[in-house]
Amino acid sequence: MKEKMSQLFKDKVFLVLLVLGLLTIVAAAGVITIQRGNNDGQSPYLEVPDQKGVIAEETIPQENQVAVAGDSNAEQNLDADTQVADSAKATAKAETEAETPAVKAGAEKEAAAALVLNFNDATKMAWPVSGNVILDYSMESTIYFPTLDQYKCNPGIVIQGAVSTPVVAPANAKIQEIGSNEELGNYVILNMGNDYTAVCGQLKELQVVENEYVAQGDVLGYVAEPTKYYSIEGANLYFELEHENHPVDPLDFMQ
């Protein structure tokens, strides 16, 4: 009987040791598995994204955000500011120019000190246009006018010139009158001082206005197409010189 009990006790001890051994093996296997999982470099905990940046962007109003240097938004804001500043400057300039009255032709010369007009019998004039004299001055005898097919006196000279040739002031003068008639077309009367006046006729595209001062050599206008009184003679400048309202020979005063 004792031998059976002893044998049963030994069997139970063996079973207990066997179970403990199995549990030890299972536990060891679990530890090894956990260590292998940690070797992958991944945390066993759930990572939560950092919410600080998200919260800051949502809570700061867009109009109050400060542009960061180097940010594309910063460059766009700077470009927008530059365009606004340039637009403001352009508007201010336009308003300034609009407020500045336009200067009338010749007003600048009128505002300047008047030229000394001291034409006399010893003064030499410049040719108002370069060309041949095709009709001479003649007040003591008549000369033939081809277009009119008649003889008559001529109080001035007719100087040949191509259309659009510049016509210049023969001396310092003040524009006394600007007008137009059938014979001379557009004309300019120059007051040169000491009761000397000159008439330039058959002009176009006048560059002067009445009461304007001009210096010798300033452009008065350009040679126009001839009027019907000079169609055969062709394009020309009619030039007349008077002293005390009496015509005198311009060639006596030409350089």
Automatic annotation (TrEMBL):
Protein name: Peptidase M23-like protein
GO molecular-function terms, A-Z: metalloendopeptidase activity
Region (Disordered): 83-104
Keywords from the UniProt entry: Signal
CDD domains: M23_peptidase
Gene3D superfamilies documented for this protein: Glucose Permease (Domain IIA)
Organism: Hungatella effluvii
Domain M23ase beta-sheet core stretches: 154-250
UniProt-listed InterPro entries: Cell_wall_metabolism_enzyme (IPR050570), Dup_hybrid_motif (IPR011055), M23ase_b-sheet_dom (IPR016047)
Cited Pfam families: Peptidase_M23 (PF01551)
Compositional bias of kind Low complexity: 88-104
